[in-house]
Amino acid sequence: MSNTSKIITRFAPSPTGLLHLGNYRTALFNYLYAKKMGGQFLLRVEDTDRERSKPEFEQNILDSLAWLGLEYDRISKQSENVDKHTDYLQKLIASGRAYHSKEEVKEAGQRAEVIRFKNPNRAVTFIDLIRGEVSFDTTDLGDFVIAKSETEPLFHLAVVVDDFESSITHIIRGEDHISNTPRHILLQEAIGAPTPIYAHLPLVLAPDRSKLSKRHGALPITDYRDAGFLPEAIINFMALLGWSPQHGEGTNEEIFNLTELIERFDLSAVGKSGAIFNIEKLAWLNKTYLAKLTLEEKLTYVTKVLPSLDQTVLTKITPLILDRASNFEDIKKMKEAGELAYFFESPKPNKDLLKNTAHLVKVSELLGALPQADWTIESIKNSVWDFATEVGRAEVLWPMRVALSGQAKSADPFTIAAIIGQEETLARLTYAQNL
RNA sequence: GGCCCUAUCGUCUAACGGUUAGGACGGAGCCUUCUCAAGGCUUAAAUCCGGGUUCGAUUCCCGGUAGGGUCACCA
């Protein structure tokens, strides 16, 4: 493959705020497309607005991308390219394509003079990879402002120059940029740059179908990280928002890691309509990825939420916790609701909840006879099973479980017994018998 | 309001003129060695409306309607 045909995409966020999941989906699609095509994926921090750009926002973008595993081949900051922008600006002015324009100052901070692009006022048509042919009449745009001064280029100019200078071949961005495209095409022609291939992604929508934003509580991606969502789950979820692996011959699978996504991704399989961010599906995805973790990873995960609990016990109950939780909040709730307490301390079962303590003596006897070395879930179960079946499982198992947990809902009695140990099990059984 | 984009179950989506309109999340029900969770099975649930084109439209065209985006000296 020759160098000129190499595909280069870019993610060009501005560090003027915390980016949400919709923004990172754009990054993901740029990444996937570049990798799929054997090309490069660039990160360009669009910090032309010196007033609003903040280092902490930039850092958050870097952190988020790193966490998601979206590695870029190159990073640049738009502010470092101002020389280039002004070079082109000079040329545009010299050739009469742009001009100094006297302005009426309406608001504080406005300049009395800015630089406007001389709009050729014509129709512009481009092919959007997702939408097909799109046409605009640029007359509606007027002579738009491209710089505050000869040393202060603005967004439209900066974008076009930077994309040209870094040989961007494909611009994949949100649909909210679709109306900027004719301006950019006009500018490209004016500076003698080729028009890259455009693909405008449908927007990620808030539940009320409007553009996702802070106003709807759209969280920065790092908040999902801090809430216990796994990057794999977020990646998978974002990919499914607007793109479908089920196209063509299709597949009903939808669990894909980054590598698999690169393999399968296809811009032509990206839909055209906006997609509402469905948190429930994210939770489900997170749970499935949580289940894939190794035991050590699970323990690390759970420990983040329950740092003060006894590690030995926590290790044993981690699988149980993750069977019932899909994020940190779920685990916190389990803890607060007392659903975990019985693993750490003896419960005080409610007599009514116990229902029937008649068979507990026999259960104690059976379990007491078990050799310490044989104290496993399997053996515990086997030792009481026949008896339970004989007199009625619910008659035996329910009281046994409540005696051990004190809860109406809990893990099964065999698992609890195995975790708390023989001595403690017998003690709890005895306590319940005497209620 | 001008311009632009979009329109299949509640949600994410598949079906690129012919299907009993498929899958997933969520819901409901059942099963799964007592409860909960997980798992399995079953089930309810959709082509925005009106015209065309066609032997035949979810699919193509036109018009409505609805929703969204955008109209900065932000990006």
CATH class category name of the largest domain: Alpha Beta
Task: Enumerate the strands of the largest sheet in spatial order, edge to edge or round the barrel.
Answer: 4-5-8-9
Strand content: 5-15%
Mean pLDDT: 93
Number of strand segments: 13
Q: Structural class of the secondary structure composition?
A: alpha/beta
Query: What characteristic shape results from the CA principal axes?
Result: elongated
Please identify, by name, the CATH architecture of the largest domain: 3-Layer(aba) Sandwich
The profile of the biggest β sheet is: 4 strands, antiparallel
Radius of gyration: 31 Å
CATH topology of the largest domain: Rossmann fold
Helical fraction:
40-55%
Low-pLDDT sequence parts: none
Number of helices: 18
The N- to C-terminal Cα distance equals: 81 Å
Number of domains in the coordinates? Answer: 3
Q: Superfamily at the CATH H level of the largest domain?
A: HUPs
Structural summary, described in words:
- With 435 residues, this protein is an alpha/beta fold.
- The protein has three domains: 1-76 and 156-292, HUPs (Rossmann fold, 3-Layer(aba) Sandwich); 295-343, no CATH class; 351-433, Arc Repressor Mutant, subunit A, CATH 1.10.10.
- Helix content is 45%, strand content 13%.
- The protein is built from 18 helices and 13 strands.
- It has helices at residues 21-36, 55-68, 82-94, 155-165, 181-191, 221-226, 231-240, 258-264, 279-292, 295-305, 311-324, 328-336, 351-354, 360-368, 377-391, 393-405, 413-420, 422-433, and strands at 8-11, 40-45, 74-77, 98-102, 113-117, 123-128, 132-137, 145-149, 152-153, 170-174, 197-201, 204-205, 275-276.
- Strand 10 (170-174), helix 5 and strand 11 (197-201) form a beta-alpha-beta unit.
- The longest helix has 16 residues, at 21-36.
- The structure holds one RNA strand of 75 nucleotides.
